[in-house]
Structure prediction request, 379 residues.
Amino acid sequence: MVGGAALLGAALTFGAARALTDAQAARGALAYAQSCASCHGPRGDDGFAPALVGADSLRRFAGTRELYAYTRGTMPLAAPGSLSAQVYLDLTAWMLQQRGAAADGAELTAATLDATPLDPARASTPAAAEADGRRSLRVVRSSFSEPAPHLAHNLPDLRATIDGQTAACDFLAHYHATGGLRRWGFPTSEVLEERPNAFTQYYQRGVVDCHQRAGAWRMERRLAWDYLGGGVGGAPDLGVEPELLSGQPGERLGPWGHRVSNAAVDGTPIGFLDFFQALGGVASFGFPKTEARRDDDPRAVLGVPGASPGFIRQYFQSSVLEYHPGDPEPVKLRLLGDDLRNRLYPQQAYRAFASFGPARPLGAGAAYAPERVTVPSAA
Prediction:
């Protein structure tokens, strides 16, 4: 799940609403009796632990994936995480059945958690919301570019109305406010939907999300490096190089004590600070996780697999800056958006989805229907 659980190395499915099978719910009932009933009671609402069935149960959970993750991470109370992933899915299916979910002939899996409503009576999936008028997206304005056939994409400003709440998902405005083409490169996808009611666009050098966080709708750059080498979403955590600090003048930013400077650790003039400030600063790049140093410095820990060695690089939460001496524009941004897309959609699996293929121009005022693609967590 974008922004939280692991997103890597799993198959991809369209996010149509899913439920469970009677056989799976029956397995879940047996597992409940063996591992849960001693605390929650034989019926699920008659023990000393919180009720798992009934109209007032499970209100703390935003969705089915959150319920599954909590159950797998904390239960049974005496031995959290001791059951298999399949048993936790079966338990989740049983709880959904108790809430009125109907069997649909397909078992609940890690790939369908996001597309399965926790409250079937409300059926709060995007498809259901659009069908009954509770959700709509409309194009306010859009810019279309086609620098190459495979890069024919729109950059839209959208208005999303969801359950009576209006959100401004202004991808075009955000793009220009945070550095435009120099910062992001060209878009490599249309605006798509990887999680219910969260909208995403991929660019050559990064990824931007329009989603709800901390009770408000936000346009935010995804922490692309953290999904590759910062421990987010199952990625390895390569750290922040606390022993490799610079004495060069610059701005010390963020929690790790690193600074952004126009000079590398060894004094080489590089212009990173000017580039950083001109293209949006922290709002665009995130905080620095290293100093500007050569990847082959024996004290360096962070690195991009397969990247050309010997360059001065600086790693940020959302980007990687490179210095190319002798180039007319020596400060470059690594194509981290492409790197992240390839990691989340391995073996070019993104080619299966229309959003990553060539698009036609959008018109202002047109209704917009983002392609729904769920990138599931690893089971």
Notes: The longest helix spans residues 22-35. The first strand starts at residue 13 and ends at 14. Confidence is low (pLDDT under 50) at residues 1-17.
